[in-house]
Design a protein that fits this description.
Length: about 550
């Protein structure tokens, strides 16, 4: 999907790795030693199906996350059948890098997919993606909608049949695709006028209409409704196979376009605006951006803040689109139940990253703030006695790949840079990771961020020369004051800086009980492979 940050950024962050110079050049080319390093001794473990639901740009702002105003009954119902991860984090808050990371089990500094223009497979020809691994081990693997950012270009060999679902709509008057996903004639005519006025220099699909649309139509007029229909058809067709069905819904990504009835679930005047619509005190400039993705839409000013009315309309649109997608997810889950597949199927639902709805004077994603990195993750696994429970443990999206492997008895690959959270599924209150990691690229600068139980610590540029941030979530959960320069924080800065450099391996939990098969830890190489934050920093700093 095309997300408009700025053209300059997209060009800068090209597949040549410009902007990541050191990282790109220094990481070893033979990073991926793709072999089934652990020949599973999981025995005759039951092979579940997997229903893998991705929701684009979904914040953890749902009923099951304690947000009473969001109407999300179907996702909430799913949450009641499984475990809600209250503190799950993506590895980079943009579609393509987040998805490439989750689907490879590797971090962005390893995949080198930091931008929207680099398909995972082009820079990681030998990576074994999650669907590919399941396909290799006997599952029938189907992709519908937006799973990889670049759909079939990412990993055409990973699937048992070509990826399906609504496609791009690149021509005026052509079949309406998922992008930008409008359905009304009025918007179509506006876009044509804008395209003509622009001299048709841009492709038509880059001519955006308004950031919202509320058409009085049935669900299936919009791409996500069509996707639900397709998912139901596929479920009926593959119900007797051992399947891995990935369904990637397109909303609530911009444009906030969905049927009017979902807008009518909310009263505009009751929509809350962010109560911290200001940049964090003492935050470096590089931590923020000009939300170019939103400004590309018709009617959004090119500079400055939105009016309250505009902001409220956008937040209303976001809510409506979440409720719309929730309804489509409900249709798919109901069919799974109707087909008698529920107790044979693991369901995992995730949003690829968070989203700023005016917090910190920001809109969209593409930051290292909690609002962008914190993402929803719900997992429902048959036969695990955790229905309706929640965990406060820190987990990362790179953990999803090894977790599904363990649950389905698949071997763990050396490439993986996360660990299975199956022990948490069994004991949601147990101790877990000391920290989780994310990264963000602004222009030509990369910012690395580590989130501990209490703090978020971020360094921008080499040795933090372009900015250091610390937010104390115990006293400042909204991240409104950067306290990195406070004298009393000196020791904390030193500790967190060390954690950032030591990287994810040093933050792993100790797993020494008997609550699971201990397979999850065995894929952690004893000798660093050169991937991940720790080694990246060591290499940059000439340490180790
Ligand atoms: Ca996204």
């Amino acid at each position: 999907m095309k997300e408009k940050f700025t053209r300059r950024e997209m060009l800068t962050l090209s597949s040549k790795g410009i902007g990541f110079g050191l990282a790109t050049q220094m990481l070893p080319k033979n990073l991926f030693a793709f072999k089934d390093s652990i020949t599973s001794n999981l025995g005759e473990k039951k092979r579940f199906n997997v229903l893998f639901i991705a929701v684009d740009d979904l914040r953890p702002q749902l009923g099951c996350y304690g947000h009473e105003k969001m109407i999300s009954p179907n996702i909430d119902q799913l949450a009641k059948s499984g475990l809600v991860f209250q503190r799950a984090y993506c590895q980079q808050a943009i579609c393509a890098p987040s998805r490439a990371s989750l689907l490879s089990g590797c971090r962005p500094s390893t995949t080198h997919v930091h931008d929207l223009t680099t398909p995972l497979r082009t820079v990681n020809p030998e990576v074994v993606t999650l669907p590919q691994h399941f396909k290799n081990h006997g599952h029938y693997v189907v992709s519908l909608g937006k799973i990889f950012h670049h759909r079939d270009k990412d990993d055409p060999g990973a699937w048992s049949e070509p990826p399906g679902g609504p496609r791009w709509s690149e021509k005026p008057g052509g079949p309406r695709g998922f992008w930008p996903g409008y359905v009304s004639q009025e918007v179509e005519e506006l876009r044509r006028r804008l395209w003509k006025k622009s001299g048709k220099e841009k492709p038509y699909d880059e001519i955006f209409g308004p950031p919202v649309e509320s058409a009085d139509v049935f669900d299936d007029a919009y791409p996500d409704g069509q996707l639900a229909v397709l998912a139901i058809e596929i479920l009926r067709r593959i119900k007797n196979k051992q399947f891995f069905l990935a369904v990637g819904f397109y909303k609530p990504h911009l444009a906030f376009a969905c049927p009017k009835k979902y807008w009518n679930l909310y009263q505009r005047e009751e929509i809350d605006l962010a109560d911290n619509p200001f940049r964090p005190k003492k935050a470096p400039d590089i931590a923020l951006h000009n939300w170019g993705e939103l400004r590309a839409y018709h009617g959004i000013p090119q500079t400055g803040q939105l009016s309250d009315a505009q902001a409220r309309e956008l937040v209303h649109g976001y809510y409506a689109c979440v409720s719309f997608v929730d309804a489509q997810i409900g249709r798919v889950l109901a069919e799974l139940e109707r087909l008698g597949l529920r107790d044979k199927t693991i369901i995992v639902l995730w949003g690829d990253h968070g989203w700023h709805l005016g917090e910190h004077s920001l809109w969209c994603k593409h930051t290292n703030f909690e609002t962008a990195a914190h993402s929803p993750l719900i997992m429902s696994v048959p036969e695990l006695n955790n229905a309706g429970q929640k965990t406060e443990a820190l987990v990362e999206f790179v953990d999803i790949y090894p977790s599904l492997c363990e649950l389905c008895g698949l071997p763990l690959l050396e490439q993986l840079e996360g660990i299975s959270f199956v022990p948490l599924l069994k004991s949601p209150d147990r101790s877990w990771k000391k920290a989780v990691f994310s990264e963000c690229v602004q222009g030509e600068t990369i910012g690395y961020s580590v989130r501990t139980d209490r703090y978020r610590y971020t360094e921008w540029g080499k040795d933090g020369k372009q900015g250091v941030e610390i937010y104390d979530h115990q006293n400042d959960p909204q991240e409104n004051v950067n306290i990195a320069s406070f004298p009393e924080m000196e020791r904390v800065v030193a500790t967190l800086s060390k954690m950032l450099r030591e990287g994810w391996r040093a933050a792993l939990p100790e797993i020494n009980d008997h609550t699971h098969d201990d397979q999850s830890m065995k894929n952690i190489p004893t000798v660093p492979t050169g991937s991940g934050f720790g080694s990246l920093f060591r290499r940059r700093r000439g340490i180790g």
